[in-house]
Amino acid sequence: MLTRVVRTTAVFLLLCLTTASAFAAAPIKIGAIFAITGPASFLGEPERNTAQMVVDEINKAGGVKGRQLQLVVYDSQGDATKAVQAATRLIKEDKVVAIVGPSTTGDTMAVIPIVEKANIPMISCAAGSKITDPLKKWVFKTAQNDALAVDRIYEHLKQNNISKVALLTVSDSFGSSGREQLKAQAASHGIQILSDDTYGPKDTDMTAQITKIRGSQAQAMICWGTNPGPAVIARNSKQLGLTIPIYMSHGVSSKKFIDLAGDAAEGIRLPSGRVLVADLLPNSDRQKKSLLAFVKDYQKHFKAEGDHFGGHAWDAVMLLKGAIERGGDSPAAIRDQLENSRNVAGVGGIFNYTPQDHAGLKKNAFVLVEVKKKDWVLLK
Amino acid sequence: MLNQSPTCSAGDLIIACAAFISHKEVQSTMDISQQLLQYIVSGLSTGAIYALIGLGFAIIYNSTGIINFAQGEFVMLGAVLTLSFISALQLPLLLAVPLAIAATTVIGVIFERLTIRPLKNATPLSLVIITIGVSILLRGIVMLLWGKDTRALPAFSGNDPLSIAGATILPQHLWIFALTGLVIIANKLYFYYSISGKAMRACSFNRRAASLVGIDVKRMVLFSFMISAALGSMAGIIVAPLTMTAYDVGIMLGLKGFCAAIIGGMSSGLGTVIGGLILGTLESLGAGLISSGYKDAIAFIILLLLLFIRPQGLFKKGETERV
């Protein structure tokens, strides 16, 4: 009997001690929603890895103003309903001060009403322009807008005197957002869209569409999609002997694409964040330091090449860190300080958030690369 | 004159043909006929893939009366296992392929033993649901073990396109056609000239009567799972250099194969093959001439129409033989 009392007291005391010590260094809780599994896992997985890696490193280096960061990650599986549940849980149960993610535009759009109502700042890692346009008070993003990528491609086409193009876009949210932008910006760049074809995300043969494009007067083909579709298109184009240049989107800017498409990838051009060509950049490039640090870290931790998707999470955590350092850890202060982020050289570009611009990047966030001898080279 | 963009302006055949008849521009007719030929050749080669997968559905259906929705997973397993034999065990392709087919067949056997056989008097519906469960399980296991990345298998004999009267195909397509041809012949020989093949046909006519004359129906069911698994994995391996492979590639390919089998009236012979070829060609023509946005819709509209109008398949007169 007595022993039991002693034991209970001991346990109780121990519990008190541990909670007390936990209170002493209460970490700053940051929430994260990524599509770690499911169709968008190519985004969510590197993002989760990167976010965790950066947070661990910040903590190892002494935290933010002496306080540790704690990352609470939930998997949205690329499903808007799950993303909403995760956001609600992060805000109500975990009581996070800010949210990083979600990974996809669809998930982000679904979560926006929740964070806006709860007044919690969120930095999305998705690319859709509509996330920050129109402006939402509590929502920021790090991924480069599709519009910037389209702008970059059209500019390059004009330099090469190409004015007639054929579109081939995937019929999911990434493809249709790209397609909208391609069509919207065509006129202002003097580009004429001769054909506008789509393919399904799981399609395994696009020869029909490419045959049609081959028979048209198009001077270039622009394909908007994420792996594996574009790799199939590259292979099909080679099979059909398509001679016009092929431009793709930043959705395939990883080594994976070259692996999948093999020889067929040669000569394909695409806009990409600088991370892909970090080592090729001149030393004067302001992003080079962040980029190399990110690539090296990612390689060390995950034995894989860091891609620009992971970079979106890196940027989001770094921007948050900066905001907390400047203004403390209340959600409102973080939001206000995010708007004061100036010239933050990240992985995706140089960020300048302002009260009018929550996307923070300019066209120069993208460089144009071409596949040569199974590697990327910088164009122009 | 077929000016600017002969086929892409809402591109349809009628406009193109009208333009051709009135202006007879030789160059453009070449383009159009060449394009048509390419659509058909591409369609036939995808169709052959659907046919191979569809045959697997038909064989199991005929001996058990159930639709095995894990057929697409056999397709995926074939390719994924081949890849891992090549990369992990450093085996040559020639050895990895038969090993992968054997391994998938073993998985098919385990699948039948553990989930189909123990259920003595289950209705076909519950068995179908079980196959869906197995497909999710297999997909999950592969996802955990091999990850979610898409990977490509090297082509069997190079990637240099071959030209046939202006239309191009890859050497891999020839492999697919050859395999489809072989499978049709092997099927015919097996089902019509071997004892176990005939026994399996007997089961498909009437299981009860078959068991009364001494045919071990359960054994036949096991056989059918073995054959389908082997066929599925073969199909998966041979298409993987073209379509690439990932843990979830079986869903869409399986569905298209199912369509092919339905069009063919679930025959485990020529019917399903023709069904697959029709499906592939219509998809390709539809994507090229009407709109690529409707490519999948075309396949499924055909499927629905057929289920409404001719549920017994295109080539069958009512209730006749099934094999």
Task: Please describe the topology of this protein.
The complex is a heterodimer of chains A (380) and B (323).
Chain A: H1 2-24, E1 28-34, H2 41-60, E2 69-75, H3 80-92, E3 98-100, H4 105-118, E4 122-124, E5 139-141, H5 146-159, E6 164-170, H6 173-186, E7 192-199, H7 207-214, E8 220-224, H8 229-239, E9 246-248, H9 255-261, E10 269-272, H10 288-302, H11 308-327, H12 331-338, E11 344-345, E12 350-351, E13 367-372, E14 375-378
Parallel strand pairs in A: 1-2, 1-3, 3-4, 4-5, 6-7, 6-8, 8-9
Antiparallel strand pairs in A: 10-13, 11-12, 13-14
Helix pairs in contact in A: 2-11, 3-4, 5-6, 8-9, 11-12
Chain B: H1 13-23, H2 26-64, H3 71-88, H4 93-116, H5 124-146, E1 162-164, E2 167-169, H6 171-193, H7 195-205, H8 207-212, H9 217-243, H10 249-263, H11 270-290, H12 295-309
Antiparallel strand pairs in B: 1-2
Number of strands of chain B: 2
Mean pLDDT of chain A: 87
SS summary, helix count of chain A: 12
- N-end to C-end Cα span of chain A: 82 Å
Helix and strand composition category of chain B: mainly alpha
Helix content of chain A: 40-55%
Low-confidence stretches of chain A: 19-24
Number of helices of chain B: 12
C-alpha-based Rg of chain A, rounded: 23 Å
Distance between the termini of chain B: 52 Å
Name the shape of chain B in a single word. Answer: globular
Question: How much β-strand is present in the residues of chain A?
Answer: 15-25%
> Briefly, what CATH class of the largest domain in chain A?
Alpha Beta
**Which percent bin holds the helix content of chain B?**
over 70%
Find the biggest chain interface: A-B, 42 and 48 residues
Strand content of chain B: under 5%
Taking Cα atoms only, what radius of gyration of chain B do you get, to the nearest Å? 21 Å
Report on this model:
Helix content of chain A is 44%, strand content 17%. Chain A is α/β, with parallel strands linked by helices and 380 residues long. Chain A folds into two domains: 27-144 and 288-362, Response regulator (Rossmann fold); 147-272, Rossmann fold. Chain A has a five-stranded parallel sheet, sandwiched between helices. Chain A has a four-stranded parallel sheet with strand order 7-6-8-9, sandwiched between helices. In chain A, helix 2 links the parallel strand 1 (28-34) and strand 2. The longest helix of chain A is centred in the first third of the chain and has 23 residues, at 2-24. Chain B is an all-alpha fold and 323 residues long. Chain B has a domain at 55-271. Chain B contains twelve helices and two strands; from the N terminus they run H-H-H-H-H-E-E-H-H-H-H-H-H-H. Chain B has helices at residues 13-23, 26-64, 71-88, 93-116, 124-146, 171-193, 195-205, 207-212, 217-243, 249-263, 270-290, 295-309; strands spanning 162-164, 167-169. The interface between A and B is large, with 42 and 48 residues.
